[in-house]
Amino acid sequence: MRQLTGGLLLALAVTACKTTAPVVQQTPPQPVILTLGSKAYTTDDFFQSFTKNQFSSDSAQRTDVKNYFDLYTNLKLKVLAAETEGRDTTEAFREEMNTYRKQLAQSYLTDKVLVESLSAEAYQRMQEEINAAHILIPVGEYAAPTDTLLAYQKALSIRKQALAGTDFASLARENSQDLQTAPNGGDLGFFTAFSLVYPLETAAYTTPAGQISMPVRSRAGYHLIKVTNRRPSRGKLRVAHILVRLSPSADEAGQKAAQDRINAAYARLQKGELFDVVCQEVSDDVTSRTNGGLLPAFETGRQVPAFEDAAYALTKIGDVSKPVRTNYGWHIIKLIDRKGLESYTDLAPSLRQRVMTDTRADVLRQATLQRLRKEYQIQEDKAVVEGALAKADSTLLRGQWRYTEPLDPTLQNKPILTIAGKPVTINQFFAYVRQKQQPQRNPALAAASPVSTAIGSPTTTMRRLLDRFEGDQLIATEEANLDKKSPEFRSLLSEIRDGVLLSQVMEQNVWERSMTDSTGQRQYFDQNQAKYRFPERAAATIIVAQNDDLLKQAREMLAGKAPYQLKRSAADLTYDPNQTFLTDKQRQGLYDVQVTMARNPDYVIEVSGAHDATERDSVSASRIRNVVNYLVKTGISLNRIAEKDYQGSPPRRTTDAAKNSAVQRRISLQYFSNAKADVAKALNSSQPLSSGEPAVTVTEGLFAEGDNPFLDTIDQWKEGTTTFNRGGKAVSVTISRVDQARAKTFAEARGAVINEYQAVLEKQWITQLRQTYPVKVNEDEIRKLTK
Fold first, then answer.
1. pLDDT tens digits for 331-383?
2. Element at 756 (helix H, strand E)
3. How many CB atoms are located within 10 Å of the residue 5 CB?
4. Do 236-340 and 563-674 fold alike per CATH?
5. Contact between 602 and 673 (Cβ < 8 Å)
6. Mean pLDDT score of the chain
7. 619 and 662 in contact (C-beta within 8 Å)?
8. DSSP state of 714
9. What residue stretch is flagged as signal peptide (predicted)?
10. Is the dihedral of CA 9, 12, 14, 17 positive or negative?
């Protein structure tokens, strides 16, 4: 019910638009097409709104200029009312608009060409998987230049040794400070795009197999990358697993117990038990075991190597691995699906999103800042900058730096930067430092000294924060100027602003009033009772079949009351003499029942049992009880289970006494349903499709004239069943009740009343607004647009 009139407002999805060049030239005043009170609206503003409406994806909202002008006028009247009430000056409104503005601005601040280039590059890389090893020489992101140079020179020295023939793995074990990979000779395994930080990924993909890269800088330090192998992409896998957890600190007995559990689970699978059942009973992965062990799809480099290798070694859908040991414990893996690399067209949207959120975002930011530095003049006050750097001390490296105000008279409120003529003070910068500072930690270096210059230099850290601050201020300056530089941005933001205000005043004046004004609703209903009537209606069940035989079967199955027998059953459970407990094989058979009942919420399962002449009467009851208890434990409600105990006299299936005893020692499982549509499904499952149509359809409901062509065939509606053939179909129409035409009660009409009452309230409100803000239309401008 809460729809914006005329569909004038665009969603934020419109923000995926082109970055426009700055517009600085003066333009002549635009002609005014509409004046509301003292406020004027230009022809250009109206025409932009009209054009967007015409190109809206909702064709039902499109209209001609004159009709749209009325919608536009009403919209602007409502927004003007909101402005008069001061709704656009509240703190909540400003915060909401700031959020929208930042979201909208991202599209204009980001280099879309670069995003597309990085996305295409990533897709190209995803077609190949790289196997590599690395050596990390740590140096903090904010380390002093001398320490950075020493780390770089050490990396070069190690590279020289490797090129001279020293084993790279040995050099990694001796020198690398990556505690996870160093013991394994720096091995990173196989990976693909987005698996490593972007600089390392680029080094890996641009270094030939067998070669070693030059030192590559990351926030952790310098890396040497040796590419050992390349192979085509193996695509994505979807697997399920059974996990038996094993703590790394487990003793020998604990390790043996875990291995025995996984081996027992594997043996059950080898005997034919269903993977889902074993998983639910055995797996320690609480997240996935209730879903049959299913894991999210993954690609190379997303799982631990042992798990990944075992998963990719499975070749056929449904294949199950032998137990696999990882650092999490023991796994049995089942292959669910395997897909090759999707097309770029399909992957492009997600690739663009990943490009803007992974470490490539640094590349995008630097490109934006490079562009903005050319557009805006930036000046640093050297003396104030030096004063700021002098305030840095070791607490900055621990994320505990503080400052007190007022600062020294030589610094207090002094501009540290000037961007496009606007000063930014040192006080603003220091507040930024307080907010953004973080402990500079590098585990490989922290042991050497609590404040190591290799981790970070206070002065260098403060300088880097100033650079970051300057970049943020540049972006904020550009964002603040987007209204002036981009008419498109300004127009979109104006529409969002109007939409927020419109929603607020519509809520107060129309939506909320229409919902809560029960007196007004009742008055409107009383004044318009003639509109709210039910026509004559028939409660009917309509069966349409391909031929008379199928129609007869359907009518026989639907005879009587629900539940209806479906002529569908699960496999019988057979028992040895005097056996009442469920075997693993029988539980496996009941799993099919569990799945069927879960997929068909209207189904009822009849559990019937018997015993042979040599068994006690209680045996059949025990068999039924154990089956029912098991089904209830698997989640089937007791009210969906029917029981039938034949005792010692079930239907005989053979004259052979021995065979008949075996027949008697069983549980039968017959499906019924409370839904007539399920009867049609059961019949259709055994019939071939004819021209793509089902063999039988069953439709029931309360129908008025015109609702169903087969019911309309009957001239006079009355209780009873009518069968006939029409259009090559056999049809049965059973009318159980005929409701005569009558007036609706207020409760029955209330939904429609509220909808129509909203329109009345809105019309009354618009009339008031037109009196408050006289409407003046420039007809000449309207005529120009309608030519």
1. 999 999 999 999 999 999 999 999 999 999 999 999 999 999 999 999 999 99
2. helix 746-772
3. 17
4. no
5. yes
6. 88
7. no
8. -
9. none
10. positive
How far apart are alpha carbons 528 and 744 in whole angstroms?
11
Residue 295: strand, helix, or coil: coil
Strand order in the sheet with 128-138: 187-191, 128-138, 221-232, 216-218
Residue 261 one-letter amino acid: R
| C-beta atoms surrounding 81 within 10 Å | 21
Domain residue ranges in the chain: 1-84+487-529+744-787, 128-232, 236-340, 376-483, 563-674
Backbone angles phi, psi at 773, to 5 degrees: -120, 90
What's the predicted TM-score (pTM) here? 0.66
Give the three-state DSSP class for 222. strand
CATH class of the region 236-340: alpha beta
Amino acid 424 reads V
- Highest-pLDDT range among 154-158, 448-452, 612-616: 154-158
Rounded to 5 degrees, what angle do the CA atoms 612, 614, 616 make? 85
CATH architecture of 128-232: Roll (3.10)
Q: Is 112 exposed, middle or buried (0-12, 13-18, 19+ CB in 10 A)?
A: middle
- Band of residue 453 on the pLDDT scale cut at 50, 70, 90: very low
Q: How far is CA 714 from CA 248, 543, 544, 707, 717, in A?
A: 77, 14, 15, 13, 6
Structure tokens at 338: 């395997």
pLDDT over threshold 90, residue 634: no
Nearest 10 degrees: CA dihedral of 192, 195, 198, 203? -50
Alpha helices (runs of H) in 238-343, residue ranges in sequence order: 252-270, 275-282, 305-313
Listed in sequence order, the residues at least 6 apart from 3 whose beta carbon sits closer than 8 Å to its beta carbon are: none
Residues 6+ apart with CB under 8 A from 544: 696, 697, 699, 710, 729, 730, 731
Asked whether residue 570 carries a pLDDT value surpassing 80, the answer given is yes
If 0-12 CB within 10 Å is exposed, 13-18 middle and 19+ buried, where does residue 426 land? buried
Tokens of 262: 């996984």
